[in-house]
C-alpha cells in the first residue's frame, strides 16, 4: 500500500509542477494530494515536499490551517484570469469560452470562500514595553 501511495504522490507532484506552467491544470490540489499520500507512504518524501523552496512554505502553511497569504491569493487570481482571458480570445468558441468562465469562477469562489487567508509571512515586530496578551 505504501508503494502505491508513493507512486500516486510522485505522479501528483509531476502534475502539480506541470500546473505551474499550464493555465488549466491546477497546482495546489495535486500538491495537497501528494502531501497526503506522502504522509501515509513516506515521511521522508513528505519532508522533502514541505522543505521544497518553491512550494514547501505554502503547503506547510495550508496543512497547518494558516491558509494562503492575501497577496498570494490576489496574484493567483490575477494570473489565472489573465491566462483564461488570453485563452478565450485565442479560442473564440462560445462553448469553450463558457467552460473557461465556469472553471475560472469556480476556482475564484473556492479561493476566496473556502481557503483561509493567512497572515503575511513577515514576522510582526512588537514594540518595546508592549506585552502580548496571555504573557506574564
Descriptive overview:
With 136 residues, this protein is an all-alpha fold. The protein has helices at 2-21, 28-41, 43-51, 56-63, 70-91, 94-114, and strands at residues 68-69, 117-118. The protein has a two-stranded parallel ribbon. Helix 1 packs antiparallel against helix 2 (28-41) and helix 3 packs across helix 4 (56-63). The model is unreliable at 123-127 (pLDDT under 50).
Structural class, by secondary structure, is mainly alpha
Mean pLDDT score: 83
Widest β-sheet, arrangement of strands: 1-2
User: Major sheet: size, sense and barrel closure?
Assistant: 2 strands, parallel
**In percent, how much strand structure appears in the residues?**
under 5%
Q: How many E strands?
A: 2
Order of helices and strands: HHHHEHHE
- Low-confidence parts, pLDDT < 50 over ≥5 residues? 123-127
Question: How many separate helices?
Answer: 6
Shape: globular
Helix content: 55-70%
Amino acid at each position: 500500500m505504501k508503494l502505491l501511495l508513493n507512486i500516486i504522490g510522485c505522479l501528483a507532484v509531476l502534475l502539480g509542477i506541470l500546473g505551474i506552467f499550464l493555465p488549466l491544470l491546477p497546482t495546489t490540489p495535486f500538491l495537497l494530494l501528494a502531501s497526503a499520500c506522502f504522509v501515509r507512504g513516506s515521511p521522508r518524501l513528505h519532508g522533502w515536499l514541505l522543505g521544497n523552496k518553491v512550494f514547501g512554505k505554502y503547503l506547510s502553511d495550508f496543512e497547518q490551517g494558516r491558509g494562503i497569504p492575501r497577496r498570494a491569493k490576489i496574484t493567483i487570481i490575477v494570473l489565472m484570469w489573465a491566462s483564461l482571458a488570453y485563452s478565450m480570445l485565442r479560442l473564440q468558441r462560445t462553448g469553450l469560452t463558457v467552460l473557461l468562465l465556469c472553471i475560472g469562477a469556480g476556482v475564484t469562489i473556492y479561493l476566496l470562500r473556502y481557503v483561509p487567508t493567512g497572515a503575511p509571512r513577515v514576522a510582526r515586530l512588537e514594540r518595546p514595553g508592549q506585552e502580548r496578551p496571555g504573557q506574564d
